[in-house]
Amino acid sequence: MAARVRRRGRAFLEDEGGINLAPLLDVIFNLIFFFVVATTLRTDETFFDLVLPEAAEEPAREQQPPLPEVFVLQDGTLIYDGNEITADALEQTIREYVDREGTRRAVLSADGEASVQRQVDALEVLRRAGIQDVIQRVRTPP
Length: 142
Description:
Blueprint: E1 4-8, E2 11-15, H1 22-38, E3 69-72, E4 78-80, E5 83-85, H2 87-101, E6 105-110, H3 116-128, E7 133-138
Helix pairs in contact: 2-3
């Protein structure tokens, strides 16, 4: 296809029918220049000395008595110290333990098949006996 020739004033210009990219490149370079100038470099980072603790030999802990453990079976039966116990007797036994040892912690273990309501009932017995911190776990019956 032959290039068309147009007459503009006295000079003849060839029109190749393409897109002139010069203005587009000018705009792109102007934008790049603007973002480089407008971007602030963060130099406000603060460095400080950090003294890390060193490992030391752990002091000997005094031997604490084991926590009382109550086990809730699937049918709601309560087991304490390997023996079946009623809720009232458990409350009295745990209350005596709290008075004697001074700790308000206990372990509540439940059979994986025990209902949540039975576990909540056992928690309520422990709370009435003065236990404030209960470690709960699920395990197989003793």
